[in-house]
């Protein structure tokens, strides 16, 4: 039987943590096997600020995904975001020893490794080195240099940089949750994989992922990533503004935003009012939907302006850099009523809401095709690229991997009993195919050896 390539993505967001298990079906589409989500309690603006709470939230999401899918998670690809992320453009080159030999993958890897050695600011680490156009012996605008001849290979790079401590904290949370980290991906890149088509990337497009704590931006042109940015504002600041502006608690503010909120104040009539129950015997509060929309509108305009400043910094007004496909909005914030119209009004660019359904199998759950899960779907796609076996069937772990307990023969000499244990450990060494199995086996042998120790103590 062919080994299944089961992929797992873990989206550690500010409002929610999502664990998603998936695999490619026979048509090359992504089939989601299990989804687990939990409230994110230890993350602020995309950065872990409470290790213990984050570990608990990760374990909860992972456990739910495992129960829903029937698979045990071994390792995950995780998304990195947060206000510490920045990107730089860099050009580098290598001189080849033999120009008469064709350029191969090793030459490109040599060039990428050279960029990875760039000196960064103290405490910063390179997350991604993404090659853009190549230049061979002065001939520019080469997209695929492999197979060509040349002595000097040059390339422009998009380098994504983040704070080393923040990245390590994420890694620590995952390992402390009992799973391994198989890869790190910038969240806007994962979202882009999930919701953008190749045609859009070729024509030029800006992906805006409005999350709870951050708003991520990724700009593509000619099929190449051109610019990335993370803005430290998201849906949570809108909720905070409603909470302060209407003097209500956070839970009520979030409900108001989701159920009645609109990014366009002209939409609501003056007499539209919603009544909110008062706290602990207090009178109910009456809130005008027009005022609610004004509060939301002001904050959304601020977020969109900040993103548009980044789009202008990329140089989208230059005719050669024009983003013909406009803007794609995704993330939980993209579900806000009339946000598409507002973004079109502010930027003057065509806008659509991005759903991750293009790459999903036809029978996928409607909930998974929501913009809310765009990043998680993208992370599963990245995990599939790694071709790792990130999860195994729970029944396979239980039935075939755990050795059956055989109590030691009481009359046997102590040396033979201990030899028996060693033999069992040797036999099982060949079966250590995944960390889950290793953990089960270790627990089993600990118990086995403890029983022998008790037996020896009693024998004395």
TrEMBL record:
<keyword id="KW-0131">Cell cycle</keyword>
<keyword id="KW-1003">Cell membrane</keyword>
<dbReference type="InterPro" id="IPR050696">
    <property type="entry name" value="FtsA/MreB"/>
</dbReference>
<protein>
    <recommendedName>
        <fullName>Cell division protein FtsA</fullName>
    </recommendedName>
</protein>
<feature type="domain" description="SHS2">
    <location>
        <begin position="7"/>
        <end position="195"/>
    </location>
</feature>
<keyword id="KW-0132">Cell division</keyword>
<comment type="function">
    <text>Cell division protein that is involved in the assembly of the Z ring. May serve as a membrane anchor for the Z ring.</text>
</comment>
<dbReference type="Pfam" id="PF02491">
    <property type="entry name" value="SHS2_FTSA"/>
</dbReference>
<comment type="subunit">
    <text>Self-interacts. Interacts with FtsZ.</text>
</comment>
<comment type="similarity">
    <text>Belongs to the FtsA/MreB family.</text>
</comment>
<dbReference type="GO" id="GO:0032153">
    <property type="term" value="C:cell division site"/>
</dbReference>
<dbReference type="InterPro" id="IPR020823">
    <property type="entry name" value="Cell_div_FtsA"/>
</dbReference>
<dbReference type="Pfam" id="PF14450">
    <property type="entry name" value="FtsA"/>
</dbReference>
<keyword id="KW-0472">Membrane</keyword>
<dbReference type="GO" id="GO:0009898">
    <property type="term" value="C:cytoplasmic side of plasma membrane"/>
</dbReference>
<dbReference type="InterPro" id="IPR003494">
    <property type="entry name" value="SHS2_FtsA"/>
</dbReference>
<dbReference type="GO" id="GO:0043093">
    <property type="term" value="P:FtsZ-dependent cytokinesis"/>
</dbReference>
<dbReference type="InterPro" id="IPR043129">
    <property type="entry name" value="ATPase_NBD"/>
</dbReference>
């Amino acid at each position: 039987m062919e080994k299944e390539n089961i992929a797992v993505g873990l989206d550690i967001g500010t409002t929610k943590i999502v664990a998603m298990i998936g695999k490619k079906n026979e048509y090359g589409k992504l089939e989601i096997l299990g989804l687990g989500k939990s409230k994110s309690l230890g993350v602020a603006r995309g950065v872990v600020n409470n290790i213990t709470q984050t570990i608990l939230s990760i374990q909860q999401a992972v456990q739910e995904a495992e129960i829903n899918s029937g698979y045990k998670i071994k390792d995950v690809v995780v998304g990195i975001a947060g206000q510490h992320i920045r990107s730089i453009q860099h050009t580098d080159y290598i001189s080849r020893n033999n120009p008469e030999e064709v350029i191969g993958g090793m030459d490109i890897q040599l060039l990428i490794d050279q960029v990875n050695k760039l000196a960064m600011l103290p405490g910063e680490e390179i997350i991604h080195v993404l090659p853009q156009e190549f230049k061979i012996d002065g001939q520019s605008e080469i997209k695929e240099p492999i197979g060509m001849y040349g002595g000097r290979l040059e390339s422009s790079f998009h380098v994504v940089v983040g704070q080393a401590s923040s990245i390590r904290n994420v890694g620590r949370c995952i390992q402390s949750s009992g799973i391994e980290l198989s890869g790190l991906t910038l969240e806007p890149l994962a979202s882009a994989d999930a919701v953008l088509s190749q045609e859009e990337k070729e024509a030029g497009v800006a992906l805006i992922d409005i999350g709870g704590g951050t708003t991520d931006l990724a700009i593509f042109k000619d099929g190449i990533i051109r610019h990335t940015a993370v803005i430290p504002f998201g849906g949570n600041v809108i909720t905070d503004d409603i909470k302060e502006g209407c003097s209500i608690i956070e839970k009520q503010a979030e409900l108001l935003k989701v159920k009645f909120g609109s990014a366009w104040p002209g939409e609501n009539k003056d007499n539209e009012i919603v009544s909110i129950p008062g706290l602990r015997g207090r009178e109910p509060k009456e809130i005008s939907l027009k005022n609610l929309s004004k509060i939301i509108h002001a904050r959304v305009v601020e977020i969109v302006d900040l993103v548009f400043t980044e789009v202008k910094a990329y140089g989208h007004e230059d005719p050669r850099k024009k983003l013909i496909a406009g803007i794609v909005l995704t993330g939980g914030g993209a579900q806000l009523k009339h946000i598409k119209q507002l973004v079109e009004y502010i930027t003057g660019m065509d806008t659509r809401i991005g759903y991750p359904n293009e790459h999903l199998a036809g029978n996928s759950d409607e909930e998974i095709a929501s913009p809310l899960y765009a990043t998680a779907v993208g992370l599963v796609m990245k995990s599939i690229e790694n071709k790792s076996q990130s999860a195994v069937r729970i029944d396979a772990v239980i039935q075939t991997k755990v050795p059956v307990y055989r109590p030691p023969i009481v009359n046997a000499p102590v040396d033979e009993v201990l030899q028996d244990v060693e033999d069992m450990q040797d036999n099982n060494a060949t079966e250590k195919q995944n960390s889950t199995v290793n953990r089960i086996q270790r627990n089993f042998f600990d118990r086995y050896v403890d029983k022998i120790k008790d037996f020896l103590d009693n024998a004395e």
